[in-house]
Amino acid sequence: MAFKSKGKFNQDEKILVRLMVPKEPSLNLRASVRWQGKTDSSGTRFIGVKFMPFRNKSGLNSLESLNVLKRLEEQYTNKEKE
Question: Is 36 helix (H, G, I), strand (E, B) or coil?
Fold first, then answer.
């Protein structure tokens, strides 16, 4: 996943990403920073992250959040095909 940020992150830095989808509860996901794009004139850069594994274990993403992501993917993928 990638997002825009004015903040600077270190390679492999562990972060918490809040995914907000309209009409859905927000989803907090643990991730690590994989890359950063160049800063534009406003000081904004793209940040690429990789989600931590999904297991019911401390410090990782829950299996419940994986199920939510799968449901959202199916829901929005099906809308694009219509």
Answer: strand
Distance CA 36, CA 2 (A): 9
Q: Cβ of 30: how many Cβ atoms within 10 Å?
A: 18
pLDDT one-digit tens code per residue, 18-61? 999 999 999 999 999 999 998 889 989 999 999 999 999 999 99
> Distance between CA 69 and CA 76 in Å, rounded?
11
Q: What beta strand segments (E) does 1-82 contain? A: 2-5, 14-19, 27-36, 45-51
Give the whole-angstrom CA distance, residue 80 versus residue 82.
6
For residues 10 and 32, the answer to whether their CB atoms sit within 8 Å is no
